Amino acid sequence: MKNQPRANTEVAVNLKKYSLETVRYAAHAASAAARVFIKLKGPATAVVEFSPTGKLPGPKIAAAFRAELDDETLRAKIWAANSELRDFMILKALSTEPARAQQDDSGLTPEQEKELDDLIAQVESEIKQEAAAGASADPLGITKTWEDKYGAKKPRKKN
Amino acid sequence: MAQKNPAKRTSPAGPPQLLWRREGADCLVTNDFGHYAWLKCKDFNLLAAGSLGEKHPKYAELADKGFVRDRLDFEGLAAKWRSKNAYLGTGPGLHILVLTLRCNHKCLYCQSAAAGVGARNADMSVETARKSVDFALQSSNPAITIEFQGGEPLLNWEALKAAVLRARAGAKKAGKQVSLALVSNFSLMTEEKASFLVENEVSVCTSLDGPADLHNRNRLFSGGNSHAATIKWLKYFQERYKHQVPGYRTFKPSALLTVSRYSLGRHKEIIDEYVKHGLEDIFIRPLAPIGYAKKCWGQIGYGAAEFTKFYLASLDYIHKLNRNGTVIREKMAAMMLEKIVNSRDPGYVDARCPCGAAIGQIAYNYNGDLYTCDEGRMVGWEGDDTFRIGNVRADSYRKVMASAATRACVLSSNLESQPDCARCVYKPYCGVCPVYNYEVQGSLWGDMAANDRCGLFKGIFGALFALLKKPGGEAILKKWAGK
To answer: Which pTM does this prediction carry?
Structure first.
């Protein structure tokens, strides 16, 4: 006996509440259990259709998708509020050595604030220059040979 | 002196970046710096909304770990990030020399597509072996490992010997730290060869799939008993390790376990076999349907769920042994824990972002062809050179590092560009494999939602975090990291 195809399940999403991007990524998360088709129904509604591919039934997949919509909204909100800060942190990690000495972190003097602003401006300018230079710029020097980078060194003695 | 202004609070005091996974009433949160915390879902909601007050019992921990935006320790967190991603900018550290395609075993799961012992044009020449070592020494990585593999590398002893001597001389000249490792089935080992390896500080690693019946079922050897040969030489190298002599360091031998379908359900016997032979590490490696293994997947393969079940049972058993005083740890877990607990890079090129293909490791085929990794070489052996990045005799280091295949692998394994991975709570510790994706799903990017390797890693991470949540489990697992 042939297996009966599982019934499709549809979920209508209000695009005034959730962006189409949010719907798309939330739907992607459900794609392990179903084929997903997103259709626009007018300017304010997206209909997401799930065709189950495994054991999980459509209504359960739809429930997981609805929960994912809220999680995706939260992700988008955190991303929007912090993407520049995150870029700054990663660039800082890539481009500077950790501070060796403990410093007073109770606050910054106006002079220190100016210095920090200048540093941020410099870092942002470097990012733009690197982006403009393209992939061949090799900022980390990965394509350089050992000798190019450090030169020949004296051998270490074996213990 | 100028009056210092108090730092302004940013509202809301939410997380600067947050990855999470809900599990019942609890929620695991992680961030780019490699920190993690278990929260109650109601506390997670407070954190996400920026409403977690300073008096909340979790506030101090979360602030220390970089989960609260207006309490970020910029220097400390940047240092964590650097430490966890220390491999970026160091160049390839692992150099795999395939000294021959020939092998005297016919293992059921062999991904290397080994040729028979009598095969022609399957050995690396002494000249190519030396050139390969010279090429590896050009890496900008200050500490490299040259690993001799096959086929069975002892079938090409002259090339192995030449490569070892070249590497030792080259390391002295360059002032570089060079580790040498041999992966062998030991069936062709002799006292003379073993002494040469030990005296030149070559560490040895073999395959041990469990008790004799299971090992010999997986690893067919027409020349005798594969298990017996393995155990005989394991004991030999363990004795040499115990009796160190001045002038060189002798390394402890290690073994690798490859889990085939026949291994499932036999985790206790397999682990007991490792303990019985004095091995303190067991690396529970899943099979991948790449190269030759892809053709016989129906006979020996399994799904992510089956492997995860086996892995969990194994971890559970190892934990039980640890509690009773037996020293043994699972290597995959130990490497993941090094990232999770210590925010340090364990050198595991298979789980990095971007993946270690070419920028972390290079595979040198017997004929001097260079591949992104050994898996990429196996795809090449099947007639598809997508992952070929050059030839050791024809191409410069710079050209290889900037080759199209290198760039494609870096781009496709960047987790930020993977829709599932960018949202996954395990992202700070994980990595995708473009070769696996290409072989199994038909594209370098793959589709993580339906990817068995992804399912398998999620299972492993899930098990580790569940154990870390338990006070008793945490103490044992933390000992595994950084050992």
So the answer is: 0.85
Strand A9-14 relative to strand A45-52, pairing: antiparallel
- Structure tokens belonging to residue B244: 């160190």
Whether chain B has a CB inside 8 Å of the CB on A90: the answer is yes
What is the bridge-based pairing of β-strands B388-391 and B254-259? unpaired
- Nearest by CB to A32, which of B15, B89, B450? B450
pLDDT in tens, B215-269: 999 998 988 899 999 999 999 999 999 999 999 999 999 999 999 999 999 999 9
Distance between CA atoms of residues A135 and A137, nearest Å: 5
Q: What CA–CA distance (Å, rounded) separates B478 from B449?
A: 31
| The token pair that represents B93 in the structure block | 């550290």
**Whole-angstrom Cα distance, residue A82 to residue B31?**
13
Q: Is ipTM over 0.85? A: no
Question: How far is the alpha carbon of A14 from chain B, nearest alpha carbon, in Å?
Answer: 22
Say whether residue B7 is in contact with chain A using an 8 A CB cutoff. Answer: yes
Amino acid at B67: F
Buried-exposed string B165-192: b where 16+ CB fall within 10 A, e elsewhere: ebbbebbbebebebbbbbbbbbbbbeee
Q: 């889990």: which residue's tokens? A: B259
Q: Is the peptide bond before B442 cis (omega within 30 degrees of 0)?
A: no
Q: Can you list the domains of chain A with their CATH numbers?
A: 9-80 (3.30.70)
Helices B452-469, B434-441: inter-axial angle, 10-degree rounding: 130
Phi, psi of B113 (to 5 degrees): 50, 50
